[in-house]
Specification:
It contains 2 helices and 2 strands; from the N terminus they run ααββ. The chain is mostly helical.
Length: 79
């Protein structure tokens, strides 16, 4: 799958929205559910890859320190 994280997340939101309406035939619901599961796995893979890159950036010598990424702190928001 060659979708960016943002593209995959947008499509996943569309899939969920259609499924939540509940007015689809069973076959279409199953197809969308399967597509959603593929999109979730794709997003998880991209997030894990990004996390690995962040961890590599905080290496000190041979020791790896895992630190949470400070989300929102640049805007004065707590993580």
């Amino acid at each position: 799958m060659d979708l960016s994280f943002e593209e995959a997340l947008k499509r996943l939101e569309e899939v969920v929205e259609r499924l939540e309406k509940g007015d689809l035939p069973l076959e279409e619901s199953l197809r969308l559910f399967q597509e959603g599961m593929v999109l979730v796995k794709h997003c998880e893979g991209l997030l894990k890859a990004a996390e690995a890159k962040v961890e590599m950036m905080v290496r000190e010598g041979e020791e790896l320190r895992k630190e949470p990424f400070p989300l929102g702190e640049e805007n004065g928001n707590p993580p």
